[in-house]
Amino acid sequence: MRRQAPKISAKEAAVGYLSRRDHAERELQRKLKQRGYSDPEVSEAIAYCQDYNWLDDARYAAMAIRSGLAKGWGKLRIQQEMKMKGVHELCIRQALDEADVDWYEQAKSVAQRKFGDAPMETPKEKARRLRFMQSRGFDFDQIRYALSVDDEY
To answer: Which residues form the RecX second three-helical domain (predicted)?
Structure first.
């Protein structure tokens, strides 16, 4: 069964998506293609949105970093989220370099909010905390700093 042609133009659909929230270019392309628009229509809509500066991967990357920080994520998790949305690697790197973030202090803040001042008394509790911090996207040095752990893993 062939998909029915969309009722609105690709440009209108793209503007509709962008009016709700910022999108990465590849993410918007994927959404438009899923709605049944042809490649030339999608390309034209993307170019149209870029001409008016409604679609900008650099701005999207900066927004993704702010959003990730607010969620208590580390650099690795934020990077992964942007890759999944289709943001170009160079754009991700540039946005992270420009972001004025102390990832060690971010990790410490997340650990403090989650665990408070409760001591790590058992290896099981230590492992649980390490897994939590890893799932948030912090590397081992940041986790060691945040949890005040001195020994190697």
So the answer is: 56-96
